[in-house]
Amino acid sequence: MATATPLPDTIQDILGIGGFAGELLSMLLGAALVGTIMLTMTAFAGPWAKRKITAAFTDRISVNRIGPMGLGTIIVDAVRLLSKELIIPEGADRPAYDIAPVVLAGSALLAFAVIPMGNGIHLADPETGLVFVFAIASIASLGLLMGGYASNNKYSLLGGLRAVAQNIAYEIPLVVTAASVVLFTGSLQMSEIVAAQTVELVTIAGIRIPAWFAFVNPFAFVLFMIANLAEVGRNPFDTPEAPTEIVGGYQTEYSSVYFVLFYLGEFVHIFLGGAIIATLFLGGPAGPFLPGFVWFTIKIWAVFLFTQWCRSAVPRVRIDQIIEIGWKGLLVLSFANLLLTAVILGVLGL
Amino acid sequence: MNPWIAIGMLALVGILIPASMMVVSSLLRPTVPEQGKRATYESGEVPTGDARVQFNIQYYMVALLFLVFDIETVLIFPWTVIYQDAVQSAGLTRALLPMLVFIGVLVVGLAWAWRKGVVQWVRTPRHGGKPHEQ
Q: Looking at the domain assignment, is residue B24 inside a domain?
């Protein structure tokens, strides 16, 4: 069971262009649409929503001067950051220093190619979609290491190496927990994973509860949420950029547009984590009354809100605890979850 | 139509967006060259030495362990895809037991590394483990 039509086909039908060139053009337009959607969400999240949410948690007033509810801050901040002087530190490793922000921002955007966003916004649906998402998502830590090493700053180097330590500690629990979901679906294709969650789980008082994997296997959902916090580097796992320990971590020496790209890459990465959680555990774009895309947006913003909540409420763990929590806690639990799911599924013969 | 072409297109867009932002910024931003401000930040002090020094990154063994487990996850995914079909066609034992043995071997490996004190950041008695013998 596949989705209706992939996005490039829809665009091709609307424009009425045929041939190979038409296909390529419609694919490019589809890719541009997906990129624009994510940039728009990031523009709301970075300069505005993050400040508003943090202010609400700490009982302060945030941006409120420009535009209604301070929304004009988004434009003002974009102009301000882009027109700042770019200061390149002495002894910076030039190609790597320039490429690192592009790697971080570009890789986070690329992973959205296989995410079904509802209303037919689904750029590509390869059979190995889930593996593709995890493969692309972990490129981000390469960008962080490149930036940290190339800056010729000791804090940056520490931050980059911490990002790698964190990634190797939480990548495996994340992927193994996702594998326990694949046990149910029997497919790595994103559309199949979403389709497997549309069946009815149980009906309580006339309300039909769908078999979202967050309801079917809540233990896996909790594990995945925790591992995802570490994967996107947010509290309690924000050691790579811990301001009280290593200044700004990997982004200490980055200014102007390069800093914007680092910031943008991080936020797109947080949304990517939310999109993976929505697709694997929350039924993708499914939901009552509202269109699919609205539900998809609500779900990934809910995950974003959760990361911001953790950022305001949970203290940071020490760097030596990162490895131990990952390898002695989450790794063991994720394998236990995988094997238990396999045994229960096999015995029940679902 | 090959989905990987569409993914390649998004890769192109993913490079074009940062590149265009860099171009726009280079048109807008001022350039005031001055040697002092290019110094790397070291909490306001004059930076000492180069940042590219050799030091113990503390998780070398963990990184080696990571490679083993990362390859393992690649081998687990095909099994999870066919698992339910395999249970029906070949029975529970034949579908589950080989994977139990496979993961069991790796868990024994992890337990060994754990006892050796590899799976931790700082190897000092303060953190509960025995000092590791090199």
A: no
Bond preceding residue A173 cis, omega within 30 of 0: no
pLDDT digits over A278-337, tens only? 998 888 888 788 888 888 899 999 999 999 888 888 888 888 788 888 888 888 899 999
Could you tell me if residue A231 is inside a domain? Answer: yes
Give the whole-angstrom CA distance, residue A193 versus residue B39.
51
Nearest-by-CA chain B residue for A31: B10
Distance from CA of A109 to the nearest CA of B (A): 6
Distance CA A105, CA A263 (A): 8
Chain A residues 57-116 with CB within 8 Å of chain B: 79, 82-91, 101-102, 105-107, 109-110, 112-114
Rounded to whole angstroms, how far apart are CA atoms B122 and B131? 10
Nearest to B84 among A86, A339, A345 (CB): A345
Residue B95 lies in a domain: yes
CA angle A77–A143–B120, rounded 5-degree value: 115
Which residue, chain included where needed, has tokens 């508003």? Answer: A52
- A265-281 pLDDT per residue, tens: 889 989 999 999 999 88
Q: Which residues of chain A lie closer than 8 angstroms to B58, CB-CB? A: 165, 320
Tracing tokens 């996107």 back to the chain, one arrives at: A232
User: Does a structural domain hold residue A33?
Assistant: no
ipTM tops the 0.95 cut = no
B91 in a structural domain: yes
Is A182's CB within 8 Å of B77's CB?
yes
